[in-house]
Amino acid sequence: MYILHISAECFPIAKVGGLADVVGALPKYQEASGITSKVIMPFYEKDFVKKHDPIGFTKGNLLLGLEEYYYEVLEYDKKTLGFELFLVKIFGLTDKENVYGYPYDVERFTAFQKVVADFILNQEVKPEIIHCHDHHSSLIPFFTGHCYKYNALKDIPTILTIHNAQYQGWFGYEKMHYLPEFPADKKGVLDWYGQINPLATGIKSAWKVTTVSPNYLGELQEKANGLEALLKQENNKSLGILNGIDDKLWDPKKDKYLKSNFDKKSIKKRQANKDWICKEFNLNPDLPLISFIGRFVHEKGSDLLAETINYIFNELNLKTNVLILGSGDGQTERSLNDIKAQFEGKYNNYIGYNEELAHIVYGGSDFLLMPSRVEPCGLNQMYAMRYGAIPIVSNVGGLKDTVIDFDEGEQGTGIVCYDISAHEIGFAIKRAVVVYKNKTFFDTKKTQIMNIDSGWKKSAAEYIKMYQSLTLKS
User: Fold this and answer.
1) Minimal CA–CA distance to 84: which of 134, 125, 144?
2) How many angstroms from the chain centroid is the CA of residue 1?
3) Which residues pair with 293 in a beta bridge?
4) DSSP annotation of 311
5) Pairing label, strands 36-42, 2-6
6) Rounded to 5 degrees, what are φ and ψ at 443?
7) Cα-atom radius of gyration of the chain, to the nearest Å?
């Protein structure tokens, strides 16, 4: 079986969020299962392309509306990442540094998808499954299912995995001429509330729709940024499959970034990572270390962090450390910087993205805070547990699927916050401080959560089962 994954992100080439981690890991585990799994994504001016040379490329010209673009599809062999990789370099569009944030992103990702469809059409050996990820590739099922040019691809099953339904890629009908020609009666497939909505189009057109956790699938039918009715309508072809983590990359025993490697049998060595963090950020190593790692966006609850820090220190008078790693919303960054002097020695932050530092923080923190309002799956809580950091999470999406509150009994794996407010998050942190003081319970739980298997093996098997069911139908 040959699977082609189409995505805007893939670790280690380009990463903004969890999408990159999934697309960078799942194909490796599928390859290990005997499946040919490849990834095609946009080219970006990142370190990866400066350090690795392609083994070959194909070239062509693309018409997007009235504009013609020259492109190259660069090929990297399996030895580089554990799966074959193709980078779509469209000169003037995808030959940029950033993944998102350009005023012409609609043009970038529409052009990318047209090149991908042409690439598939021209392959001598075509994929048996086309697996699309999020809205940046979700027009592909429409292209292969309805556009004249790609009629030869209509019998290839298409899958759309929704990693985050908040972002849908909307654009107006004045740009419809960017799309390949299709029958007039199929225009409605593109439409959702008077706009072309790529994510909605993909949901309608794909043979199968998956979400990155079972609970998130149910949540989307109640709250999906306008797509609730559509997801209810398409429920029969939808499936929630929990993401895994790359347990070879995320292995505290071998992690090259850690200051001190450890496993569940040598967990005392973990302290050296905490000591390094506390020295680096002027914190107290004798107190619990509670950390947040993530993007500063509303869905992550990051707007409540400064208020929560004020509350736990000024109102609850908790003896703890708080460390924040992340970037994004400017107001959140300013509010977190503004309180640094007030809580010197108890709170600090790192504004930005730093993969090495993130690994050390997972390996040295006592607790990881995830007060998310929306969390389709969440990988951070699984990284944290793998590294012996107890998760403090909200009761949403994949967090609900992966973390059981300590109050639920022996099977408890963390602290669950059932309401998203500075007061409730503060109360959850207070519970964490109590847990930390109970050394026997705390040490037992650290070892217990490190035993949890959150790897891709089980999830990859679920995807394979789904692929097989689709190829039997095609």
Assistant:
1) 125
2) 25
3) 325
4) I
5) parallel
6) -65, -40
7) 23
Q: Which amino acid is at 16?
A: V
Do 376 and 367 touch, CB atoms closer than 8 A?
A: no
The tokens describing 293, both together, are: 């790692």
Tokens of 340: 């640094």
In the chain, % helix, strand, coil (3-state, to 5) comes to 45, 20, 35
Q: What pLDDT, on the 0 to 100 scale, is given for residue 474?
A: 61
364-369-373 Cα angle (round to 5): 155
94/109 Cα distance (integer angstroms): 8
| In the predicted structure, residue 473 carries a pLDDT above the cut 80 | no
Burial class (CB in 10 A: 0-12, 13-18, 19+), 107: buried
Q: Are 302 and 328 in contact (CB under 8 A)?
A: yes
**Got the DSSP string for 365-434?**
-SEEEE--S--SS-SHHHHHHHTTPEEEEESSHHHHHH--BGGG-TT--BEEESS-SHHHHHHHHHHHHH
DSSP string, 49-104: HHH---SEEEEEEEEETTEEEEEEEEEE-HHHHSSEEEEEEETTTT-BS-SS--TT
Distances (CA, A) of 20 to 5, 12, 99: 12, 8, 11
Report d(CA 375, CA 372) in Å as an integer.
6
State pTM to two decimals. 0.91
Per-residue pLDDT tens over the stretch 429-448 = 999 999 999 999 999 999 99
* Cα gap 374→395, rounded to integer Å: 9
Q: At what angle do helices 355-364 and 271-280 cross, to 10 degrees?
A: 120
Q: Which residue shows structure tokens 């891709």? A: 456
Strands ordered across the beta sheet of 390-394: 347-351, 321-328, 289-296, 367-370, 390-394, 415-417
Q: What is the DSSP string of 185-235?
A: GGHHHHEETTEE-HHHHHHHHSSEEEESSHHHHHHHTT-STT-HHHHHHTG
The distance in angstroms from the start CA to the end CA of the chain is 13
The angle at the Cα of 405, spanning 368 to 26, to the nearest 5 degrees, equals 60
325 alpha-carbon distance from chain centroid:
17
Query: Which residue in 380, 374, 294 sits closest to 329, CA to CA?
Result: 294
Cis peptide before 12 (omega within 30 of 0): yes
Distance CA 429, CA 416 (A): 10
Enter the DSSP assignment of 312.
Answer: I
Distance of CA 10 to the CA centre of its chain: 10
Q: What is the pLDDT of residue 206?
A: 98
Per-chain mean pLDDT for the chain:
96
* Residue 39 and residue 83 in contact, taking contact as beta carbons nearer than 8 Å: yes
Number of helices (H) and strands (E) in the chain: give both, helices first: 18, 17
